[in-house]
Amino acid sequence: MLDLIRKKQQSLLIKIVFWVIIATFVGTIFLVWGRGRGGPGGEGEVAIRVNRQRVTFGEFRGAYENMRRLYQNIYRDQFTPEMEDQLGLAGQVLEGMINQALLLQEADRLRIRISRDELVESIGRIPAFQVDGVFNKEQYLRVLAYERLTPEQFEDGQRRQLLLEKIRHQIEAGAVVDEGQIAEEYRRRHEQVNLAYVRFAPALFENAVEITEEALQAYLRDHSDRFRIPETVSLDYLVFRPADYEHLADLGDEALQAYYRRNLSRFDVAEQVQVSHILIRVDDDADERLRRQKRELADKLLEQLRARDGENFAELARSHSDDAGSAFRGGVLDYFVRGTMAPAFEEAAFALRPGQLSAVVETRFGYHILRGMGYIEAGVKDLADVIDEVRAGVLREESRQIAMQKATDAYNIHHRGADLEAAAEATGLTLRSTGPFERGSTVPNIGSAPELNQAAFRLGEGEMGRPVALVEAIYLVRVGEKTPSQVPELDRVRNAVEAAYRRQQSRLLARRAAEALLAEVESGTAFEDAARELSRQVEETGFFTRSYGSFVPRIGSAAAVAAAAFDLSEEQPAADRVFQVEDRYLVVALKQRQPADMEALDEDKEAELESLLLARARENLLETRLQELRSRATIKIHPALQNSLKEEMIR
């Protein structure tokens, strides 16, 4: 999917349109400068200068955040931090802001203006500001207040958007498409080719590889890092397990009280509420008539509930609620804390007390009626209520501290002579060994222990290290044997070297065989005859068109083959190069070409192609103009922003 997104981003027109959306994206199409993920520069410091126009870091971060929100809304759970980095969003925002500045400056140079009537008309068409399909001033002000915008700020952003549209339309107005271009595009799209090809798989040449001692020695010498034996180390160690010292832990009242006070946040009770609800679901694509019907039903149910003080709530929830998860329980939901429900639902729920009914509440799911069921105030649990948890915590802390103290005492007494045997005798513990292991690997007999692994490679041979605390125990270690990294003798890695050398040489033989076939064809021998002379089987792809993209039937994803296929002709049937597709080499030639059926080009197809070609021509005009404007512009980017973009490209 990432490749598809990147491919779509190559269109300059899409980039410009995307940027307009980004710069004005909040629910519908209005400007919001939010705060992004941080980065270089203060909010008011200039990040980009395009001629005399300045863009601050605050504005850049705001545009970045809007871009990020746009992708999140489009791709939802598929939009991961990894995708965010790979897409290079900061670079997209930078290009978009520069392009926007250049276009707005060009509009100013050409004295293009937006009249008050044009501005008012465009705002009136925005659905977010309409009530029952008609612009509503109160709604307009309410939405702007919610987004923390003044009318002046929003109208300034809207005016810029209209200017961008005007200058773009003026630039694109010169785009034309004639009948010849339409016919050529149809021909290109519908002509088909069938390729003949011969595969050369390296695996088929492995038995032909000549193996000599000299060749293997040379391969090992040239690829020594591939066969290098990494540095290894082994450890002798003692294990101080907290569980062995639990009987020494102090579980008196003072210790329990101290632990409880230190960990009060663990025993917090968040404010919680429990409600029952009836949901009258309204789908996103529901029209106004259906929405009114749903609202009328919700109002009618609320009227029935109020008539009986909510006593019939469970009955009505079972028969009318569209929330299947709670309807069978009479609409009862579990207790929940703030920040877990839709804002409007949550606000209404926390305003209720047991037995109270809410008004009809609207969320993106539809219409809700709520009834308070229970309420828990925020607070802290008493020590008596959590005494078992506190006692377990004290036992855990105390026994671990004692284990660490025992290990530290053993280290202090015995580390000068690295006498781990004496430490084992003094503590009554068993001396154990790991066996050799590599840097960054698991530790034999212990498992994944990065801290222990790192400590082992910091110490010298025979040296005792300070105690290392892992999750399950405290370890006191002494380095045993240390083996430095080295390139082994050939006999030690002969099988691996021979296998790698054979693979390398078989690829070389396969390529040479493919080049020999191509040379024979280029000398004038027919493709099939040349393949037969070399005892090679000729295969065919079958007919395919350019619409297949980089995919070639029976060959697979092969962009280079697909690009060359339609340039082949009867005069020059064979491609002038050997293609590598995955681990195989291909020689390709034209078998058949099937021209497009130009009689099938009817008016509907002509209209469709004209529209596509016109869009392409407009895009080209826009790109050309932007390149001209850039060539004459003075564009400066803050060094910190440039460095940030470089880091993004590296990631």
Sum up the overall morphology in one term.
Answer: flat
- Beta-strand percentage? 15-25%
> What class do helices, strands and sheet pairing give?
alpha+beta
What is the radius of gyration computed over CA atoms, rounded to a whole number of angstroms? 37 Å
- CATH topology of the largest domain: the name is Triger factor/SurA peptide-binding fold
| CATH class group of the largest domain | Mainly Alpha
Largest sheet features: 5 strands, antiparallel
Number of strands: 22
Average pLDDT confidence is 89
The CATH architecture of the largest domain comes to: Orthogonal Bundle
What does this structure look like?
The protein is of the alpha+beta class and 651 residues long. It has four domains: 2-174 and 633-650, Porin chaperone SurA, peptide-binding domain (Triger factor/SurA peptide-binding fold, Orthogonal Bundle), CATH 1.10.4030; 192-222 and 493-594, no CATH class; 232-251 and 386-483, Chitinase A, domain 3 (Roll), CATH 3.10.50; 271-377, Chitinase A, domain 3. Strands 6, 13, 14, 15 and 16 form a five-stranded antiparallel sheet that branches. Strand 3 (130-131) and strand 4 (134-135) form a beta hairpin. Helix 3 packs across helix 5 (89-109), helix 5 packs across helix 8 (151-172) and helix 17 packs across helix 18. Mean pLDDT is 89; it is low at 1-40.
